[in-house]
Amino acid sequence: MPATAVALVVAAGRGERLGSGGPKAFVALAGRPMLDWSIDALSQVAAIEQIVVALPEGFEAPQGAIGVAGGAARSQSVLNALAAADPGADLVVVHDAARPLVTAALIEACIAALDQDGRWDAAIAAAPVKDTVKRSADGVGVLETPPRSELWAVQTPQVFRREALESALGRSEAELAAASDDAMLVEADGGRVRLVHCESENFKVTTAADLALAERLLAGSAELRVSGV
Ligand code: CTP
Ligand code: MG
């Protein structure tokens, strides 16, 4: 029997670095709220039976999704969404609303990577790092240069076996508050996480320049859809 999945979309952030004056997930992007692009992609995936969105105060979930209140930190928003999701699903897909360029194909690839290989607890989208990366503790002195061939820029979707995510989200409040993704909590919990190679085009909209680039890419794809290409 194919695995069943629920999707949790975290959309409750304030978007401070974008500085648009409102929550980032609801900023207009190629004619619709940024969040709607991710909901569209997730809705096209057959294995996903339910979509739960963690929302900022005063905003509602798009049609077809269940809304819950977001938390103070990203991990808390994931926890709140998980609490409202069907507890019977095998897999949980976590996705940032700030990644509107996600595709159904990438979500399906992450689900398949986990579903078809019992060795892993999580499968996460990751692109090879293009820049050489240095480590520095103080932002001035360079401590080391890790080999670039071993470095991956991690994105969402991140897909988890439900029990593994539940256990990882039970770690300490300090760990949850510091976590920039969910896979690192699974790693700390002793879970096995695998990469699913993807394109860097699935970037996170963080700054105004990112928003402008996403607008160009998505407006172009909308024109293709309208003209039936
Ligand atoms: N997020 C959330 N709840 C929070 C913080 C973040 O649901 N308390 C979500 C954001 O809405 C976003 C994703 O987590 O979809 C990744 O976070 P980030 O890109 O940092 O978005 P913001 O926190 O909104 O932006 P900023 O850090 O610039 O304020
Ligand atoms: Mg943030």
From TrEMBL:
PROSITE patterns from the entry? ISPD
Q: Which GO terms describe its molecular function?
A: 2-C-methyl-D-erythritol 4-phosphate cytidylyltransferase activity
State the EC number(s): 2.7.7.60
Q: Which keywords, in A-to-Z order, does the entry hold?
A: Isoprene biosynthesis, Nucleotidyltransferase, Transferase
One biological process GO term for this chain?
isopentenyl diphosphate biosynthetic process, methylerythritol 4-phosphate pathway
Named in its record, the pathway it takes part in is: Isoprenoid biosynthesis; isopentenyl diphosphate biosynthesis via DXP pathway; isopentenyl diphosphate from 1-deoxy-D-xylulose 5-phosphate: step 2/6
Q: Entry's Pfam families?
A: IspD
Q: Which family does it belong to?
A: Belongs to the IspD/TarI cytidylyltransferase family. IspD subfamily.
Q: What is this protein called?
A: 2-C-methyl-D-erythritol 4-phosphate cytidylyltransferase
Please report the organism this UniProt entry assigns to the protein: freshwater metagenome
